[in-house]
Design a protein that fits this description.
The complex is a heterodimer of chains A (747) and B (164). By secondary structure, chain A is α+β, with helices and mostly antiparallel strands. Helices cover 27% and strands 25% of the residues of chain A. The chains are: A alpha+beta (747), B alpha+beta (164). The interface between A and B is large, with 68 and 62 residues.
Chain lengths: 747, 164
């Protein structure tokens, strides 16, 4: 029976309250720690055949009859007024079907999609749809815009001086910081500078819109098909059930691709005007000017501790360079929540700049906040002559320090012990050496959310072939969530994971599914999948009971067979399902809320080992030991890949990735892979990956999220390892050879 | 129409012969069109992906007469009479690599994967038993933002090892 319940969910640090439709769930829970069927065993990806053969259709591959290509005119100036634009000249170009400018497109998120007052280099001003890319390029050239350039501010510190905030500064306080710092035996002060990291998903932002009299269909490279559907429905005032959003395969997002994006709105508007399908694909340059970035930040911390290293007071502030959008990401969260500290005061200052809008990027705020705070803790450890891991142990908290709630589970202490063992932490000083190459080892802790929650729904059906079809309202970024869902369904249905077909990425197919972000996807959807599969299992056992005249309670589905408890009956499931002919047995399931009053978090510890060439300044990450507590591991193969992927993006942040803005023109100087260095196969360290999280006893299926956790401690552990190797601290990332050599010279 | 727009339209069409995955095509292409565009648009072989369009990421890697090239930087007219192989080509080596990429979880989102596979084909055709350093050197021009590099390295080595 369905009912409506009110629930709370934490999405990347923001608490949301919502009503959600929940069905009764009679699925028995997995016994604690029991590995059941395929759950917890390595499974290769179900998407392998499509993705490896070139058959997988990504949004940028969609080609409909009569489809037009779109190019967008973007401002070359960081701040300007558009003086004139030759839209008619563009329209006269052969092959051009439509050219629209500043007054011609709807607003989105309160911002005009096309503007005559661009406030960053890369802001969209006009768009041309044409029969071919070449005709669109000719149309774009015919626009001949004239600009009046205006003054601009791209520098974060200047924006702060001008008190130009994107969101009002916000404060948080507990206890009495002033008194706490006075009473502290040791006080350290430090300041860290984090760079702007660019997402650079391999598939650029793109959309194909097909506007028809009976509704809108959009192929979108999105992390959230349902959010895209609501946005399109709102902006164009169409009934949501007449908007269909499809994302069959997707080439990465990392937080930059929520909803339909401005590209979706633009494509839909052009399709509406031209009455033809329209494709809009961002260039790599568009990606890096206008599609988001991890916010650069300056973090200042004053940390007081007693003689034994117990934190007594922290005063911290963070200036975040938001550009022209995004929200105040939880950069101070690690300082507030990672350790017990009775007295705390924090201030967040999100400044506006003449740059593109910020976007969430894998553990937004928390990764860079952890990077700074975990190094500050090492500075404190050095000051107090306490082993860094020991200092963290001494500040461990068994309850959420902000509000005293207990955790559903927390195995952070275990992860320290395990990581130390695996890394050889005890003998880390022996690594160092005194020659040209110095080695060091550093640690960092990880804190994130990831409990998931409703709403999430799933449908399962099984027909004559005995090969179940699972339908979920998910989109497959490449995280492995689709395969993990199949693993969960396979356990209930007693079939091989590879026998399951998963249909996803289409709002017309299934009930509402979660977006792919916040490390919430699997924790949200898996219980719904299991409930749906359980429903089908129950019916199959009833059918088998009728056929074999054995009570359903004495039957089970295992390894593709119906078996009786006494072992006398072993028949292929197919013997039962073949009787269905063309009918199906179907079941649906939904996600129930998490228990209230408990904090749901993931934890972990990484230890990095680096080698620093003191002659060239080159830092090489030799090894990362990653131990995370993320609840039950559904597919260890996919989990390890997620961990390595997060670590590599963390290495990029720490060593090579940095958006460079020209202070004289306000434009991004490195919007391509030539100058913006993402890690390559040559940068892969040796990765040791372990999980200490047993199934979380308080959560459905014990599953928590894994997308974000592995990137969080990587840069901080690298910074601490460099400090250990060199005996000096670099407080500005990335740690390029130039910065390393400058630090060595200044010593 | 402003003169600059005139420069961008009315390109010369050229007739070329292209053998793609063992099928010969007579194609009328404009002289500015890249091999990637011709594969993806004229021939609707969308397995070849364009992630940067400026020769910096390796996603669009295909083989032209056995050599790995960046198809986004290669003019189609320069490939007249050439034999092109893409991820759709099949064949024992590519299939071995596809199996190895599956078994070693050598991809996540899969967008860079066709390019990874074709770079690996080129490597193993020229060096059937590469050592680790040779694999890293040959594959380092193929970026993977998901970070599937460990699997990629293992899969290429496995495919080399598992010659039938």
């Amino acid at each position: 029976m369905a009912k409506l319940v009110k629930t709370e969910a934490v999405v990347e640090g923001r608490t949301e309250e919502r009503w959600t439709l929940v069905e009764e769930d009679a699925t028995p829970e997995w016994a604690d720690g029991a590995v059941t069927g395929p759950v917890g065993r390595p499974a290769t990806r179900l998407t392998a055949a499509a993705r490896l053969s070139g058959a997988a259709r990504y949004t940028s591959d969609v080609r409909l009859p009569g489809q037009l290509e779109t190019l967008v005119l973007r401002s070359p100036h960081a701040n300007a007024r558009l003086v004139s634009l030759q839209l008619d000249a563009a329209r006269a170009v052969p092959g051009v079907r439509c050219a629209i400018g500043p007054d011609d497109a709807p607003s989105f998120d309160g911002q005009p999609i096309l503007t005559d007052r661009p406030t960053f280099a890369g802001a969209a001003v006009a768009a041309v749809a044409a029969d071919s890319s070449a005709a669109a390029a000719a149309g774009l050239a015919a626009l001949s815009p004239e600009w009046e350039p205006l003054g601009f501010v791209t520098d974060m510190e200047r924006a702060l001086e001008r008190q130009d905030f994107l969101e009002p500064p916000s404060e948080d306080e507990r206890g009495d910081v002033e008194a706490g710092l006075k009473a502290a035996a040791t006080v350290i002060e430090c300041e860290y500078l984090a760079p702007a990291q660019l997402h650079n998903s391999m598939e650029p932002h793109c959309a194909v819109a097909d506007w028809r009299p009976d509704g809108l269909t959009m192929w979108s490279s999105t992390q959230a098909i349902y959010q895209a559907r609501s946005q399109l429905s709102t902006v164009f005032e169409i009934d949501p059930d007449r908007v269909r959003v499809i994302c069959e395969y997707m080439g990465g997002g990392f937080g930059s691709k929520f909803g339909c994006g401005p590209e979706g709105i633009l494509a839909a508007e052009l399709s509406r005007r031209c009455r033809r399908p329209v494709r809009l694909v961002f260039s790599r340059r568009d990606e890096n000017l206008a599609a988001g970035f991890r916010t650069p930040a300056r973090l200042s911390m004053t940390i007081g501790a007693d003689r034994d290293g117990a934190l007594v007071a922290i005063e911290a502030s963070a200036v975040m360079g938001m550009g022209s959008g995004g929200w105040g990401y939880p950069i101070l969260e690690p300082i507030k929540s990672l350790y017990a500290c009775p007295n705390l005061h924090t201030m967040l200052l999100p400044v506006r700049q003449n740059l593109g809008p910020a976007a969430a990027f894998r553990a937004p705020g928390v990764m860079e906040g952890t990077w700074a705070f975990e190094q500050a803790l090492d500075e404190l450890a050095l000051e107090l002559q306490i082993d860094p891991l020991e200092l963290r142990r001494r500040n461990h908290t068994a309850t959420d320090p902000s509000d005293g709630r207990p955790y559903t589970s927390k195995r952070l202490l275990e992860s320290y012990t395990k990581a130390a063992e695996l890394a050889g932490w005890a003998s880390r000083d022996e690594l160092r050496g005194d020659g040209r190459i110095r080695r060091g080892m550093g640690c960092a802790s990880q804190y994130w959310w990831g409990g998931g929650g409703p709403p999430a729904y799933a449908d399962v059906r099984i027909g004559a072939s005995a090969k179940p079809v699972l339908t979920v309202g998910l989109q497959d970024l490449g995280t492995g969530a689709i395969t993990a869902c199949a693993v969960v369904a396979a356990e209930r249905l007693g079939v091989a994971v590879s026998d399951i077909t998963v249909r996803a990425g289409d709002t017309d197919l299934a009930g509402h599914g979660p977006f792919s972000g916040g490390s919430m996807t699997l924790a949200s959807i898996a219980p719904a999948v299991r409930a749906a599969a359980h429903h089908v299992r129950t019916q199959l056992l009833d059918l088998a009971s009728d056929m074999f005249e054995i009570a359903a309670s004495d039957l089970e589905l295992v390894d593709g067979e119906v078996r009786s408890a006494d072992g006398t009956l072993r028949r292929p499931i197919h013997d039962v399902t073949e009787k269905l002919d063309n009918a199906w047995v179907t079941g649906s399931g939904s996600r129930a809320p998490n228990p209230q009053g408990l904090a749901v978090n993931t934890f972990g510890c990484q230890i990095a080992q680096v080698a620093v060439d003191t002659l060239t300044g080159l830092v090489t990450v030799e090894r990362i030991v990653a131990v995370h507590d993320v609840g039950r591991i559904v597919n260890p193969m996919g989990a390890r890949s997620q961990v390595i992927g997060g670590i590599l993006q963390g290495i990029g942040f720490a060593l090579t990735e940095e958006r460079v803005v020209d202070p004289t023109t306000g434009t991004v100087l490195n919007p391509g892979f030539e100058d913006y260095k993402v890690p390559t196969i040559a940068d892969l360290p040796d990765v040791v990956c372990e999980f200490v999280g047993e199934p979380d006893p308080k959560l459905a299926l014990g599953v928590k999220g894994l997308g974000e956790p592995p990137i969080i401690p990587t840069p901080g552990s690298i910074g601490n390892a460099i400090a250990h190797a060199l005996g000096l601290r670099l407080r500005e990332a990335p740690y390029t050879p130039r910065r390393v050599l400058e630090a060595l010279e200044q010593r | 129409m402003p003169p600059v727009a005139n420069l961008l339209i009315g390109f010369a069409d050229m007739r070329i012969s292209l053998n793609v995955n063992d099928q010969t095509h007579a194609l009328d292409v404009e002289d500015h069109e890249s091999l990637a565009d011709v594969l993806r648009t004229h021939l609707e072989l969308t397995g070849t992906k364009v992630a940067c369009g400026e020769g910096t990421c390796g996603s669009c890697t295909v083989l032209v007469d056995g050599t790995a090239v960046l198809s986004c930087l290669t003019l189609a007219v320069a490939c007249d009479q050439a034999a092109v192989r893409t991820v759709e080509s099949g064949g024992p080596l590519l299939e071995r690599l596809q199996r190895a990429f599956t078994d070693d979880d050598a991809f996540q989102c899969g967008f860079c994967t066709p390019g990874q596979l074709m770079s690996a084909v080129a490597l193993l055709e020229r060096t059937p038993n590469p050592d680790h350093a040779e694999i890293v050197r040959a594959m380092s021009g193929n970026l993977c933002r998901c970070g599937a590099y460990e699997g990629i390295g293992l899969a290429v080595a496995r495919a080399a090892r598992e010659v039938e």
